[in-house]
Amino acid sequence: MFTGLIEGKGRVVLVQETDGGRIIEIEYSWDDNDLRLGDSISINGACQTVTELNDNRERFKVYSSYKTLELTNLGELHLGEFVNLERSVTPNTRLGGHYVQGHVDGTGTITLSESRDGGKVQVFHIEYPNWMDRYIVTRGSIAIDGISLTVVSIPKENTLELVLIPETIQKTNAYTWKVGSIVNIEIDLIARYLEKMIPAK
Predict the structure, then answer these.
(1) Torsion angle, CA of 54/49/33/165, rounded to 10 degrees?
(2) How far is CA 123 from CA 54, 132, 179, in A?
(3) Do 124 and 191 form a contact (C-beta atoms < 8 A)?
(4) Sheet holding 182-187, edge to edge
(5) Could you give the CA distance from residue 77 to residue 181 in angstroms, rounded to a whole number?
(6) Is 106-197 in CATH node 2.40.30.20?
(7) Which end of the chain is flanked by fewer CB atoms within 10 Å, N or C?
């Protein structure tokens, strides 16, 4: 389980294709480095398992299966690219975002990126698949590339609007988002449970 509060941006230093997926190695210097083999870690919002760790624990590898590559943007990663990182929550973690499982539901496409209010905020529009529409509501929670965000509005069909403050842009890979960028989407866990609990009419 994660919170959607990104700890930092890791740099992709190795991408190795395999028969059933790909091995990805990421470099990042944690402030309080407690990373261990077998740990769950969110990479652009996708929950992955640390399979290899170098001696100073500043480089780690994960194995992404073919299914993960189908559902997420991890299959599009290239050397030198930056990804959002978050370690799984602990019992004493502050839940400042929302409950994020790291189970990416699919991807969306950035259709608008513009600076507003004298550069104080960056506005994004993201087009998402039709089937997600029932789960996405104005002022609802959503995880985009693992970032816990609030849907500002639904400006048109199958499109959501986000407004990001400079701190979020600086701390995450959102500064690389541009029109045409593919981002991971995880819909709100509560919305999925509500659908299951409420009988269809």
Answers:
(1) 120
(2) 38, 21, 12
(3) no
(4) 147-150, 141-144, 182-187, 106-116, 121-127, 159-164, 153-156
(5) 12
(6) yes
(7) C
Locate the DSSP E strands across 72-117.
Answer: 82-87, 106-116
* Residue 111 Cα distances to 72, 86, 121, 125, 150, angstroms: 18, 26, 17, 5, 18
Direct distance between the N- and C-terminal alpha carbons of the chain, in angstroms, rounded to an integer = 32
Nearest to 26 by CA among 98, 103, 87, 108: 87
191, containing H or E segment: helix 189-197
Domain formed by 8-87, architecture: Beta Barrel (2.40)
Q: Over the stretch 50-81, which tens digit does the pLDDT of each residue have?
A: 999 988 889 999 999 999 999 999 999 999 99
Please report, for the chain, the start and end positions of each structural domain, with discontinuous segments joined by +.
8-87, 106-197
Tell me how far apart the 2 most distant CA atoms of the chain are, in Å: 57
| Tens-place pLDDT, residues 155-191 | 999 999 999 999 999 999 999 999 999 999 999 887 7
